[in-house]
Amino acid sequence: MSSDLELPPGVLQPRDAVLNMAPYSPPTGARADKLRLDFNENTVGVSPKVVEYLRQHLTEATLAMYPEYTDTKRDLGAFFGVDTDDFILTNGTDEAIQVLINTYIDDRADVLLLRPSYAMYRFYAELAGATIREVPYRPPKLSFPLEELLEAIKPSTRAVLIANPNNPTGTATSRAGIERILEKAVNAAVLIDEAYFEFCGVTALPLLQDYPNLFVSRTFSKAYGMAAMRFGCLFSQNGNVEFLSKAQSPYSVNSVAAMAARAAVRDKTYIEKYVTEVLAARELLYVGLETLGIPYYESKANFVLFQAGDRAIPIRDELRRRGVLVRDRSYEIPGCVRVTVGTREQIRRFLSELGEVWR
Amino acid sequence: MSSDLELPPGVLQPRDAVLNMAPYSPPTGARADKLRLDFNENTVGVSPKVVEYLRQHLTEATLAMYPEYTDTKRDLGAFFGVDTDDFILTNGTDEAIQVLINTYIDDRADVLLLRPSYAMYRFYAELAGATIREVPYRPPKLSFPLEELLEAIKPSTRAVLIANPNNPTGTATSRAGIERILEKAVNAAVLIDEAYFEFCGVTALPLLQDYPNLFVSRTFSKAYGMAAMRFGCLFSQNGNVEFLSKAQSPYSVNSVAAMAARAAVRDKTYIEKYVTEVLAARELLYVGLETLGIPYYESKANFVLFQAGDRAIPIRDELRRRGVLVRDRSYEIPGCVRVTVGTREQIRRFLSELGEVWR
Q1: Where would I find the beta strands (DSSP E) of B308-354?
Q2: What would the pLDDT profile of A81-108 be if each residue is shown by its tens digit?
Q3: What would the pLDDT profile of B172-221 be if each residue is shown by its tens digit?
Q4: What is the ipTM of this complex?
Q5: Which has the closest alpha carbon to B271: B302, B246, B296?
């Protein structure tokens, strides 16, 4: 099991779990001046009311104080329609995943994932030393493999981590599908990661009081345009939340994010308008891809996977040279490139560049 | 081992490690309008230049983008005089501790702590399922128990976590003492948490290239007045940093903190002036406590422990009623109350209130 031989002399021996992990280095850097269709962010930015609120409230004194979450929890609880005892604030969804894993997953515990999906489920499960099993999304449409997943759930399964809609496939399952998973996986923490909820509308939140094994996460990094600040919520029944809180650092969420979230949920119109724009742009994107004869997967989120065959990486690189950033996903789904859906204007620019590159 | 019986029905069974952890709930809330001498923050606030910089750079677009750390790492590396491969940025010191534990501490691994010390060492070690041993600070002066610690280090020891200066004792060890620990604990990650470095001046950073088992953490939550934003650094040799990076979430540090840190290290004068003021105020505090006949422990940091006998909690409560916040530490050191050292003016107010309460 131990892998001492691989270590250069003088390096302290890490855990085997860490030694065996693949490094995760997302391609960032020099993105500011480009059309950023690579990280599923809000492509027009956070609400101006959030910026205004922050400019008013960031003072020498407030920035020097350890975070207090009482006001934010009250406002967010009211916004989501849940009791303040039924969720924790998290440093992005990543911390939600980490806290959930730390609370329930011991070394060698059985963890069920889907493939391909958001990389951080596997990351934290590996870090915890879990035994990971993966159920593939179903070809040809990369649809949610409900029956296969149900079959894979064992009494010993301790966690099932699902993004709904899923990244990078864009596909989703229904609330009824989620209920069947919750009914089968009775000994598991079932996470429904709703990072892209605003573009899809399906949520498991109303099931919270019916299933003590249900955990729902939301993020403010996507539709809300707060990726820089790192803010999310993890919901469950209060009996579980008590344990999640015990496994969480008391100050992991910064005050700026906590303040921004309060202002963000007050400006509902901004999000509604942005989501409407994205949904219109997604239709425009479909039409444009069809015109170019490029196959794609229908998506419930603010991104679309398209088929570039053996040209996935050259096309990504050529688009980057033209100032348009997209993500290669061909290592997960052969030939696939993922493009974030922004505004119609941004999608028109993307299609025009892609058209020139594609010929 | 399992503790199912304690769980109410319908609550999902957490890991035993979590079940057995004591909850850590720091007393926050309603602090804004009080004299805050309870969290060792910068009591006058962050540098105005940091606030100005943030107000300029917080825009709709920057807040919507996932963090990029290149510029911050370059500036911080230059500031600390280390290569950018020799440290990671962390979401406060808490994440530094967590990443270190996640990288090196398996279930039941031997972890050595001092007692009393910063609560998060024990928190993350327990969460990892470590076997924790504690060496007590040495009475009567609560001095650093170097010989006892050296004796406790075993070949199987995987981590030694030390705050230098220590919280809440305020006592410290020398660089020579640290070297003796590093020479003995060859199989352990030795963390020197220098959260209060600026008030003390002793640092293990220059030893970094000599000891592959050395890890040094710094925070911007104390002298730098950035507690709200959560920002720290964890230093080690680049061979180790590679593994620390593998065990860290790629976006745990928010962009606002990363921006603020750049502005903070540029304003050296601000920190120097604040530290000078605190050191003068600490002398004033000593004199004031002596005048009142209250025993105290000499400190190398921006806080002082004093002996209130069986009145620790009533005195904290009465000070709170008068708008002055201090921390009770009598559960760790019988009779002790901890007071943060702010400016001389703030300490005069504290002493005046304490004088009335003490009679």
Answers
A1: 324-325, 327-328, 336-340
A2: 999 999 999 999 999 999 999 999 999 9
A3: 999 999 999 999 999 999 999 999 999 999 999 999 999 999 999 999 99
A4: 0.96
A5: B302
List of chain B residues whose C-beta atoms are within 8 Å of the C-beta of residue A39: 65-66
Q: What's A211's domain CATH number? A: 3.40.640.10
* Interaxial angle between packed helices A255-266 and A268-292, expressed in degrees from 0 to 180 and rounded to the nearest 10: 80
The answer to whether residue A11 is domain-embedded is no
Residues 301-340 on A with a CB inside 8 Å of B are: none
**Could you tell me if B182 and B208 are in contact, meaning their C-beta atoms sit under 8 angstroms apart?**
no
- Domain coverage including residue B336: 31-45+269-358
> Do residues A130 and A105 touch, judged by C-beta distance below 8 A?
yes
Q: What is the CATH number of the domain that holds A290?
A: 3.90.1150.10
Residues of A in Cβ contact (< 8 Å) with B254: 91, 228-230, 254, 256-257
Length of chain B: 359
Co-location of B252 and B279 in the same domain: no
pLDDT of A171 strictly over 70: yes
Residue in A closest to B68 by C-alpha: A29
Burial of B139 (0-12, 13-18, 19+ CB in 10 A): exposed
* Confidence (pLDDT) at A280: 98
Q: Which residues of B touch A340 (CB under 8 A)?
A: none
Query: If you search the block for the tokens 């002055």, which residue do you land on?
Result: B324
* A27 CB within 8 Å of a chain B CB: no
Mark whether A191 and A202 lie in a shared domain: yes
The B residues from 251 to 310 touching A (CB cutoff 8 Å) are 251-252, 254-257, 260
B214-245 pLDDT, tens digit per residue, is 999 999 999 999 999 999 999 999 999 999 99
On whether both B262 and B276 belong to a single domain, the answer is no
> How far is residue A291's CA from residue A72's CA, in Å, rounded to a whole number?
47
Q: In this complex, how many residue pairs, one in chain A and one in chain B, have their CB atoms less than 8 Å apart?
A: 272
Residues of chain B neighbouring A256 (CB-CB closer than 8 A): 228-229, 254, 256-257
Is A39–B65 a contact, with Cβ atoms under 8 angstroms apart?
yes
Establish if A1 touches chain B: CB-CB under 8 angstroms.
no
The helix or strand, by DSSP H or E, that contains position B134, with its residue range, turns out to be strand B131-136
Residues of A in contact with B17 (CB under 8 A): 106
Asked if omega into A168 is within 30° of 0 (cis), the reply is yes
Token representation of residue B176: 């020579």
Q: Is the residue at B259 inside a domain?
A: yes
Among B15, B58, B254, whose Cβ lies nearest the Cβ of A55?
B58
My answer on whether A234 and A353 are in the same domain is: no
Closest CA to B170 of B274, B36, B304, B283: B304
Q: What does the alpha-carbon distance between residue B158 and residue B112 come to, in Å, rounded to a whole number? A: 8
Q: Is A92 on the interface with B (CB under 8 A)?
A: yes
Query: Taking the model in full, what pTM does it have?
Result: 0.96
